[in-house]
Amino acid sequence: MDHFCPWVGGVVSETSFKFFIQFVSYTTVFCTFALIVCAIFTAELRRETGEVNPHWAVGIGLSCLFGVFTFGMTLSSVQLAMYNLTTIENLNRRSAVWTLAIRVPGHMLSKLNPNSRWAPTFRTITYPLPLRPPNAEDIAEHQQYQPAREQHVFAVLQTLPGENPFDLGTSFKNLQQVLGYSLFDWLLPLKHSPCADHSSLESAFALGPVVKRLKAEAGLEHPMAEDSEPRDRASKRKRRRSKHKQHS
Predict the structure, then answer these.
(1) Dihedral of CA 196/199/204/210: which sign?
(2) If residue 20 lies in a helix (H) or strand (E), which one and from where to where?
């Protein structure tokens, strides 16, 4: 949830934040248009007759009032989208610490064994939690009929104060998560935001470089995995140059 807006009559959330930005943006444009039209007509009427139409004067006042209000809402909403934060999260974004549960890869579960030489630097939690019988008399029956469930181990990691795990690295990428990936998505209220798509098995929302760094520091991801491809290309170039020198 971002906030409750009485002007749209409901909650502005991940499924409607894009439409809210478009609503206040187009309302600002409409108020600007109405202000210009009323101002021109009022100026012409005053020049010709020396009188002022009270209805047009009220239109000028309302256009200014709602134009300034919606323009401010547009700026604040776009700023939040650029940070990939909600209004509530923005209140303490400079000091907030996020606690994340990141699934430990299957090939690393053996390292979590107490007899292993590898010492993890993080706490872990296993889901689903083991079921507990209601009383001691039902322990035998509980163990007999307890269904076998696959358990997953998660590493509990924390960000530094002020870090946002959902910041994708650039303001443009963050805006794309809210407004969409094409110009038509930005202008037309037809599709939901990409951030409303929770089909990913890794996280309900897209994760940014902060999470990659935390995983690398905890040993859950190789820190040089991203740079392996450029280094391979550089090594191939060096080999080609050395072969060329040998032939020459």
Answers:
(1) negative
(2) helix 17-49
Structure-token pair, residue 79: 């700023």
Helices (H), 7-149: 17-49, 54-83, 87-90, 139-145
Fill in the DSSP letter of residue 124: E
Q: Confidence band (pLDDT; 50, 70, 90) for 159?
A: very high
Query: What pLDDT sits at residue 109?
Result: 76
131 and 142 Cβ atoms separated by less than 8 Å: yes
Q: Is there a contact between 24 and 70 (Cβ–Cβ < 8 Å)?
A: yes
Distance CA 138, CA 91 (A): 49
What's the mean pLDDT in 96-119? 78
Query: Are the beta carbons of 34 and 120 closer than 8 angstroms?
Result: no
Least confident residue range of 9-13, 59-63, 143-147 = 143-147
Q: What does DSSP say about strands 10-12 and 3-5: parallel, antiparallel, or unpaired?
A: antiparallel
**Residue 165's closest CA among 102, 88, 111?**
102
The Cα 28–Cα 25 span in angstroms is 5
